[in-house]
Amino acid sequence: MSINRVTVPATQNIPPEAVYPGAHDSHHPAPVIPKDFEAEVDTVITHYPVSKRSASLPLLHLWQEKFGYVSPEGIEWIAAKLELQPINILELVTFYPMFRQHPAGKIQIKVCRTLSCALGGGYALCDYFRKKCNVGEPDAHGLATSPDGKYSVEFVECLAACGTAPVIMINDDFYEDVSNVKADELLLKYQG
Ligand code: FES
Predict the structure, then answer these.
(1) How many domains does the chain have?
(2) Which of 4, 19, 23, 169 has a CA 20 to 30 Å removed from the CA of 71?
(3) Domain membership flag for residue 69
(4) Probe target for ligand 1 pocket from 119, 125, 158, 169, with the most ligand atoms within 8 Å of CB
(5) Is residue 174 assigned to a domain?
(6) Which of 24-33, 82-91, 118-127 has the weakest average pLDDT?
């Protein structure tokens, strides 16, 4: 039995700026790659001796952890490391919601939207934060950032405190049973 090859439209040599115009703009300063970061990346790649491509997701996580988001330069750098085309990395970044293509705000607000928190007012609370922080509409990854880069607001899934909904995180701090009044108090606290 013969198997017919499926013809896939050429995707291998599309530069990032053709995929998302404005990829190389002044909002994405060229990253300086620390030597220890590159060494860590090289070590991770050795864990995938059969196919370097399998290191794509671990490298994206490392990059985002280090630089806060995955810039077009990050996509190209990782692709070059893995001897892939940028489109191979870009498609992962756009597919998985945990990756960011833009920097988050200095004050990162995460509002739980899983069942208990949704029923407990999580959606209304997120709207409240969006208005108070002037972050506008979320991007394709659900991240909304204020024009001055001070705040970002996004939904997250269950933060494991479902009995005290709605639950949020601000940066690495965790808050339960958050009302609008408490939201105002927290914003004041983080402004300082
Ligand atoms: S549903 Fe929000 S913490 Fe679990």
Answers:
(1) 2
(2) 169
(3) yes
(4) 158
(5) yes
(6) 24-33
